[in-house]
Amino acid sequence: MKQTYLIKGMHCASCVRGVEEAIKKVPGVSDVSVSLPAETAMVEFDLEKVDDEKVFSAVSGIGYQAALKDNAGSDDLEKEKNKDLTRLKKKVVVSLFFGALIFWGSLVGQNFFLQLILATIVQFWAGLGFYKATLPALRHRTANMDTLITIGTSAAYGFSAVATLFPGLIAQAGIEPMPYFDVSVLVIGLILLGRYFEAKARAGTSEAIKKLIGLQAKTARIVKDGKEIDVPIEEVVVENVIRVRPGEKIPVDGEILEGGSSIDESMISGESIPVDKQKGDKVIGGTINKTGTFTYKATKVGSDTVLAQIIKLVGEAQASKAPIQRIVDLISSYFVPVVIILAIITFVVWYVFGPYPAFLLALLNTVAVLIIACPCAMGLATPTAIVVGVGKGAEKGILIKDAESLEIAHKINTVIFDKTGTLTNGKPVVTDVILVSEAYPESGKKDPGQARMTEARRDDILGLAASLEKGSEHSLAEAIIQKAESEKITLSKVEKFKATPGYGVEGEICKDKVFLGNRKLMETVMMLSVDGKLAGLIAVADTVKENTKEAVEKLQKMGIEVIMITGDNEKTANAIARQVGIKRVLAEVLPDQKEAEVKKIQAEGKVVAMVGDGINDAPALASANIGIAMGSGTDVAIESAGITLVSKDLRSVISAIELSKKTMRTIRMNVAMGVLYPFFGVLLNPIFASGAMALSSISVVSNSLLLKRVKI
Amino acid sequence: MGIISEDKIIVAIVGSLGIIFTWWFFLFKKEKETAVEKEVDIIVSGGYSPEVISIQKGKTTKINFIRKDSTDCLSEVVLPDFKIRKELPLNGKVTVEINPQKSGEFGFACRMNMYHGKIIVK
After folding, report:
1. List A146, A182, A402, A418, catalytic entry
2. How far is B11 from chain A (nearest CA, A)?
3. Is A418 a catalytic residue?
4. Predicted-complex ipTM score
5. CB contact, 8 Å: B38 with chain A?
């Protein structure tokens, strides 16, 4: 057997020789090939004599470290697969060609001996795989499609061979000694043809995850002691400073230290517009830097990166089982034995009640039943659709935790949105600054022009407010200070600062008594007074996300009830709800009550999807039929969510539901095809039966592949 | 009513016996359970041997799949409850580590769901 090991610590060609020789010395090892760039050793050995531990100790004995490589290297696997495919193709071509010769009799005519030679080659060379799979399975007392094909073709071939070699024997039994070599040969050819196409198509189903893996950068340019060096991605550690130039891939996750750029994150979030990032912003490994140059500090490397987590999540989801598959499983576990029994019944019925020549008709029909009933199309129906569906989602920034979540999503009839951070941007910003009275401070009077004067005074209002808020810890304070900073307003020194929680802040600026307070409405309006006179108003509000209204409308059009849940008071909540077109509002719900509210709505008989940020509302997400987390783009492994959306765009909730609907439709079509094809075939002869069977597998896989093309 | 000839009676009897035998052979087999401590090699050839393994709850168990059968269907093993899907290269060894937190019976199968094995967590 062959096994690939990772070898650590090799630096030069002599290390390679050393490792090779050390492994070769292990008794039972027949071949070793060590690769320095890949840091691997391919070892061929006798499984009876050698195990991994022996190889490990041989390598560590000369000062290196060996570890098991997960799978035998994807490249080798790929090569092996290609080799298998070529071999299969050869068998298909030969069997079908021989089959055609026998069928039309153009070359071999009625020369049964020549037919026997051709049929024997096909039966035991092209069809060897069927025997090889059947015998060990019988030892396990299990049966599979290969068993059916083996029994079927062997019966046809065996009878024909006897009829050719000992025609007298057959004639004695009152049966015409007519061989049917075309049956065994064409059945094998067509079934192999089906497998060939299915294998080719199947490679396409896992394309999405291959694409994700391909996103990983191979090297990183590390800045160290003023020098820049390229290092392999595996050597990057947290805290490393990395430089990224225009057009380059960002190697690992991190935070920008210097510079800024526009970054294409479409491969992770599905959003096509590049995102502008500056100092302090987070960047994601695998995304592409468009224009600027920047340096950043690595914060997550290896398996902790967002991309690595996405790959893991997608891989796991593709391996999971959808509830619908349990029914399919139950059917397929009885399928093969039942088919064998049906075949026996077919033979008996045709032999006993059938017309002349009873034996031949019985034999051919039995073979047809055996060939047609292969349940492989059924086995492929669900998993291929799940693999393609989950992959399609990942491409669009929709990360599905498991097949079950994908299945439930299509049944949703109610979506509950958390307000803050989901419907809205979740960050209050200054929306208006309004000048009110004559009570402006001194500095404002220096400007001559009226327009400029108003502008300056407006800035003064903001400047005074920001100066005061500098001492406050309120979330609204941050919005005001940020606004002032973005407009480059210089802040003044505040004396005698005092904050009264729930009311506001006060202090003295340039000997003026300044007070900033609020009155809560749908947005918060702060009032600034100078020396007791109202000077201006500053409105601070959490703004609704750009596409919220459109998303809500679309959901409602799909017949889904949209509900908003929030801790805000009714007035604020209703105002936002009106703005986006939501009719049902659950206001003043404390975070720990959200879960109970979700359950109440489920009790109304609704299938509920809860959409939130996945952090504050984790219990609510977990108790809903399906939890959808609107990701911050940096945390994908949100446990409580069945679906995580990388993008903040609410329209991706609709895409997720659409994806689920389309995947489920594909699964149902696949199962129907898997069940229906055999019925067609039973009515025909064995050759058509094998054609129909091959077609059923190909159609199921192709139908799943069509999912890649659907628009969501 | 004509007399049913001898050969037809024989075919009917043999057929009936064949049906009973098929039913018994495939659907009434005893499952032999192999208790596993830390690590187990499962040979993938016309099925899985051992087919049924029992492991302990809360302990990490290594399962090495060694595929010796070129049947395409067996080229992947799926452990849906553990969300594991692995390609099995022919004559290669692929290790899967699981650490079950729940006891119960968990099946695994080839990618077409034709060959089955079972992990019993105790």
Report:
1. A418
2. 6
3. yes
4. 0.71
5. no
Which pLDDT band, with edges at 50, 70 and 90, does A70 fall under?
A: low
Q: What is the CATH number of domain A387-425+545-665?
A: 3.40.50.1000
A2/B85 touch (CB, cutoff 8 Å), yes or no: no
Number of domains in chain B: 2
Residues B18, B74 within the same domain: no
**Domain A212-300 carries which CATH code?**
2.70.150.10
Whether the predicted pLDDT of A679 surpasses 80: no
Kindly report, residue by residue over A236-266, the tens digit of the pLDDT.
899 999 999 888 899 999 999 988 888 988 8
Fold annotation for A2-72 = Alpha-Beta Plaits (3.30.70)
* A326/A359 Cα distance (integer angstroms): 40
Do B50 and B2 belong to one domain?
A: no
Q: Where are the domains of chain A?
A: 2-72, 74-204, 212-300, 387-425+545-665, 427-443+450-543
Q: Which residue has the higher pLDDT, A299 or A674?
A: A299
CB contact under 8 A, A145 and B114: yes
DSSP string, A181-228: HHHHHHHHHHHHHHHHHHHHHHHHHTHHHHHHHHHS-SEEEEEETTEE
Cβ-defined contact of B89 to A76 (cutoff 8 Å)? yes
Residue of chain B with shortest Cα separation from A134: B46
- Locate the DSSP E strands across A285-395: 288-289, 294-300
Q: Does B95 touch chain A (CB under 8 A)?
A: yes
Q: How far apart are CA A652 and CA B90, in angstroms?
A: 41
Residue range of the domain that includes B1: 1-30
Using a CB cutoff of 8 Å and minimum separation of 24, what contacts does A516-521 make?
A: A516/A464, A516/A465, A516/A468, A516/A469, A518/A476, A520/A569, A520/A572, A521/A571, A521/A572
* CATH level 3 topology of A427-443+450-543: Calcium-transporting ATPase, cytoplasmic domain N (3.40.1110)
Contact A136 B93 (CB under 8 A): no
State yes or no: cis peptide before A337, omega within 30 of 0: no
